[in-house]
Design a protein that fits this description.
Blueprint lengths: L20 E5 L10 H9 L2 E4 L5 H4 L7 E4 L11 H13 L4 E5 L9 H10 L4 E4 L4 H9 L12 E5 L13 H6 L3 E5 L5 H10 L7 E6 L7 E6 L3 H7 L6 E5 L6 H4 L5 H19 L1
Parallel strand pairs: 1-4, 1-5, 2-3, 2-4, 6-7
Antiparallel strand pairs: 7-10, 8-9, 8-10
């Protein structure tokens, strides 16, 4: 079979210099969703400092002989402190190593990548930024939930359910959130799921609004539960949903019945007919 994959040699990428740090997004977990540049970095790094959300199958792609240093940060568990992680990045770079800071998802999507990059800049450490597929993109797509759709999803609001201190952020305008875009995406929301639900309901979001939780997005042990906002907390407990999980709220979830990659062709066909018929009747 003819090779139709372009030849992406080292000239395609910035040079991974000794004494520098690359902040790289590892995507939601499935190694097939790594970017080509992330894979390049895995092959050239000498020191890899990785998060708890980086899957084992991705770590297996690190070049032989490179040192692996765990710097996991998980709520409710013993975790590395952010200042210690930043200090280690600077130390490793100053020792002349090619340092790869490997972060789950995208470094700049609630991943503290901005904090680490600022610290590197302040320490005069050269660095490169490599975006990754964030969980709200890869995770939703893997379940058949699109982020947007012209009929029912013209805007998306991204939020974190976990502040630096571990509490629900206190600077969120729940009235604006509840009356704003039709789709809400929460990262790290499980610890405060009941409060989030109450805030939305008390600010006018219908209790029948569709909600979904995606645990271990894109991995073999991925679990998806669909429910209503009213039943969200109960359903999460019943299904024993654990972190990491993405929370989705909005009518966009209804498209999953027609787009679920694991559904049969016939089931998707029937669901698509039902959805398009409903939208046609609503438009008329």
């Amino acid at each position: 079979m003819e090779n139709i994959v372009p030849n992406l040699n080292n000239k395609t990428h910035p040079s991974f210099e000794s004494g520098s740090v690359w902040l790289v997004g590892a995507g939601p977990g499935d190694p097939g969703l790594l970017t080509i540049r992330a894979h390049y970095a895995l092959q050239y790094a000498e020191t890899v400092i990785y998060d708890a959300l980086v899957s084992k199958s991705i770590l297996e792609l690190v070049r032989p002989g490179a040192s692996l240093e765990y710097a996991g940060k998980r709520g409710g568990k013993k975790s590395s402190k952010q200042p210690d992680i930043t200090r280690r990045l600077i130390e490793a770079a100053k020792s002349g190593k090619r340092v790869l800071r490997l972060k789950g998802g995208d470094p700049f999507m609630f991943g503290r990548g901005g904090e680490e990059a600022l610290a590197l800049a302040a320490a005069k450490i050269p660095f490169q930024l490599v975006p990754g597929v964030t969980a709200s993109v890869g995770g939703l797509a893997s379940t058949g939930i699109p982020l947007t759709h012209r009929t029912t999803g013209s805007a998306v609001t991204f939020l974190t359910g976990h502040s630096a201190g571990g509490t629900l952020p206190d600077d969120l305008n729940w009235e604006a959130i509840s009356s704003g875009g039709p789709t809400l995406i929460f990262y790290m929301a499980l610890a405060h799921l009941e409060t989030i639900t109450q805030k939305l309901l008390s600010n006018g979001v219908s209790e029948e609004t569709p909600a979904a939780l995606i645990e271990n997005a894109t991995l073999d042990n991925q679990q998806v539960v669909e429910t209503s906002l009213k039943e969200l907390v109960h359903t999460a407990k019943q299904a024993n949903i654990k972190a990491p999980a993405i929370l989705v709220i909005g009518d966009i979830i209804q498209l999953r019945s027609a787009l679920d990659p694991n559904a049969s062709v016939e089931d998707r066909f029937r669901a698509a007919q039902k959805l398009t018929s409903h939208w046609h009747q609503t438009a008329c």
